[in-house]
Amino acid sequence: xxxxxxxxxxxxxxxxxxxxxxxxxxxxxxxxxxxxxxxxxxxxxxxxxxxxxxxxxxxxxxxxxxxxxxxxxxxxxxxxxxxxxxxxxxxxxxxxxxxxxxxxxxxxxxxxxxxxxxxxxxxxxxxxxxxxxxxxxxxxxxxxxxxxxxxxxxxxxxxxxxxxxxxxxxxxxxxxxxxxxxxxxxxxxxxxxxxxxxxxxxxxxxxxxxxxxxxxxxxxxxxxxxxxxxxxxxxxxxxxxxxxxxxxxxxxxxxxxxxxxxxxxxxxxxxxxxxxxxxxxxxxxxxxxxxxxxxxxxxxxxxxxxxxxxxxxxxxxxxxxxxxxxxxxxxxxxxxxxxxxxxxxxxxxxx
Length: 351
Ligand SMILES: *[C@@H]1O[C@H](CO)[C@@H](O)[C@H](O)[C@H]1NC(C)=O
Ligand SMILES: *[C@@H]1O[C@H](CO)[C@@H](O)[C@H](O)[C@H]1NC(C)=O
Ligand SMILES: *[C@@H]1O[C@H](CO)[C@@H](O)[C@H](O)[C@H]1NC(C)=O
Ligand SMILES: *[C@@H]1O[C@H](CO)[C@@H](O)[C@H](O)[C@H]1NC(C)=O
Ligand SMILES: *[C@@H]1O[C@H](CO)[C@@H](O)[C@H](O)[C@H]1NC(C)=O
Description:
Layout: H1 2-22, E1 36-38, E2 41-43, E3 62-64, E4 72-73, H2 90-96, H3 104-108, E5 111-113, E6 121-122, E7 135-137, E8 145-146, E9 159-161, E10 169-170, E11 183-185, E12 207-209, E13 215-216, H4 221-226, E14 235-237, E15 239-242, E16 245-248, E17 277-283, E18 303-309, H5 324-349
Parallel strand pairs: 2-3, 4-6, 5-7, 7-9, 8-10, 9-11, 11-12, 12-14, 13-15
Antiparallel strand pairs: 1-2, 15-16, 17-18
This protein binds 2-acetamido-2-deoxy-beta-D-glucopyranose (5 copies).
């Protein structure tokens, strides 16, 4: 039994190393000569690099750029790297990856590490070829916002860390491709709000960290409505401020927040005459939702008039037989009366 297992293991290891040898990445490409290459892994750390090397072999699975001067990831920097699973620091590899007691998931997860650079700009679709990538670490950079298409294509990404940047906005849909996302960390940024609309609708987060952001509780009402649907979160951390106090995001009760009123739909209204030209009044109410908790009232008029025409007047119409002049006169008087009524009503409703 034991010998059989050993034999199997030896064969497996041999096969693996042959495979690895066969696909080994040489560090001979221009721009990679200062890096350390091991199998399909490339480590370019602490080299003062200003750019990501342009000729990274397509078979690369591991890429480390920790501690450089990289300021941008453009649309082609990482294109075609479909095998890329991590961009990692060697320290992480040595000290953490093989440590006993560290969850297997962490040891075997390939990840991307860009931390301690100066990345302030990431082009749309910069990561779009990295469908194998499971972990992306972008901590300690100068990222100011996450636009909608920056992270598109990262369908396998499980862990995303954006700590210690200057992020003040995350556009709706920014994480919409990240359906495998399990751990998200955006600590120490400049976020005042995180909307539920940034996430994939099927996302199943386990860990969410928003510590050290100037979050405003009532500016993220939809987040607090969405948050209970994430049943599997075992770790969640962050504070938000409102009503002059600071509240843990896990215990904030959104029902205290002011709600601004929104108009409902206009009523259709009916034409004031059964034939000829008339006026149709349409109404709407500030009820979708009504304002509450000192929220703002709806802005604008609650009534609207439009001219209407109910077709040519024939002899069967009411009031036929009267001279057209007198009828027009009557309508005009009635109109101006209604105008005054309308304006008065509008004024009192929206003072
Ligand atoms: C994008 O960055 C790569 C290096 O990462 C560089 O070789 C290439 O010229 C850049 N392309 C543009 C359009 O700036
Ligand atoms: C944080 O964001 C606000 C706008 O929301 C901006 O005025 C301020 O300069 C930002 N602070 C930093 C340190 O980036
Ligand atoms: C939580 O995890 C379980 C097991 O992986 C899964 O079946 C369930 O759908 C998850 N819940 C949510 C809300 O995603
Ligand atoms: C918050 O503090 C300011 C200034 O100290 C005060 O004017 C305001 O009424 C307070 N608001 C609430 C909701 O307590
Ligand atoms: C939030 O506050 C409302 C009203 O004060 C209360 O009815 C509701 O149970 C609270 N929700 C939670 C989750 O504490």
